[in-house]
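Kindly draft a sequence, keeping tokens residue-aligned:
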Amino acid sequence: MYEIVKRRELNPTVTLLEIKAPLVAKKAKPGQFIILRVDEWGERIPLTIADSNPVAGTVTIIFQIVGGTTEKLNHVKEGESITDFVGPLGRATEIEGLKKVAVVGGGVGSAIAYPVTKALHAAGAEVHAIVGFRNKDLVILEDEFRANCSRFVLMSDDGSVGEQGLVTDALKKLIESGEQYDEVITIGPLVMMKFVSLLTKEYGIKTIASMNPVMIDGTGMCGGCRLTVGGKIKFACVDGPEFDAHQIDFDEAMDRAAMYRPFEQERHEDACHLFKKEVQE
């Protein structure tokens, strides 16, 4: 059993959990993920490692409530435990040799962008972090980003916080102002990563995209995270989750991801109904 030692709601639909998992914490690196089960009857889901503390033996995950399992996970309280917590899995972000990097995150994907930003900053790289949200109520990890980068740009769709516009607007502005990046790392919604990739391709800047959003089973067995990268079939969970963004067929990935949304919504509604019934009883 794995104890929840800290629980914090970052916004109405995103929750942070710090979990006691010493063996995972000892080896965890930015870019990797874990697989968990809330209870012995639960499904297995992959979640990216948002942070880890080898000394305390804890691993932090940040998740958005989108389906039945994340709804159930959101009801686990501090001091309670979940059944399974396996990892670290996946290939870690390659940061060696990078001197100047732009990390571009969007929405809950910023939770994955943060540990990458933190690792690059700790390695001595100059890091510019650009993160975007729909509005001020959805902003997460702003203080953490500011503490781990030399330049921080906050964007919002409606202008209620930071600068109004898209993350691609901010990235283009920085590039055209003369900033030269060894690499751009983008993590967030598929459509956001697609347009970040199209932009950086124009300027010939190497770009890495994290394809965590398409992972389902986390072992490569379900085929749900199948991608076309450079004309070849890859699986996000076992071959990635990070790939050369300029080689990814994002349109195919978005079409495949959309197939699962009705099922996720149905399971979420079922879980909400179950918890509401338990409260009434």
